[in-house]
Amino acid sequence: MRLRFRLLALILGSALILSPAVAQETIKIKVVERYTLAAEQIYHRSPARDNPTHQLTLTLVYFTGSDWPRETMEEAVRNVAEILEQCGLLLRQVELVRVDAPQRYHYLDTPVSRELARTLQLARPTVYFVADTRHQPAFDAEAIGRGNSQTRPELTDSVWVTRATRDVGIALTHELVHVLTDSGEHIERPGNLMRAETAPENTRLTGAQCAQMREVGTKNSLLRGVAN
Ligand SMILES: [Zn+2]
Q1: How far does CA 41 lie from the centroid of its chain?
Q2: Which of 3, 6, 29, 64 qualifies as a cystine partner to 101, CB 3.0-4.6 A?
């Protein structure tokens, strides 16, 4: 109840400063379901094995009527948890947010996506499972960190995964590492998650990559230390 009220207040607040036509569109964007994954849906076993030092909370967005199966998104989250564990990262909480929005918002398209993110005001990092991208060149998945969001601040610390993405869990983790390190850097080391081409066997991160992720992610308030 409270969340809905907050969203309504947000929409009414936005409507005051937008033209009537835009406001009309904005009102069509609304959160219709929020679902928090239980720890056992993320980890098949205790995540404490590698003594996590940092924790991450993820918000995943998908659209009513989209063809992203919930199971695919949940499986991708399990991959994220498993891969980031090597860096001492614990997936503390994952929330799935289902949004009702006109079709054009189901695509990564900077001006439209900015409006979507501005309306939703969700916790970061935010992962959007979209139908496709309107960007050229068209990447299957895209990460927007601090360094590449100056002209689109609403999209800071977000990841966009299109339905064309293969190995969704690996691709999602790869993009999240871009966001957490605030770097677009790739590395050609065999088996590394941050090779330019994602592949099922590319899941490793070096000690330096892990350290950079923990340091930058914490500095940017995307990671928190785990209290011992
Ligand atoms: Zn990349």
Answers
A1: 18
A2: 29
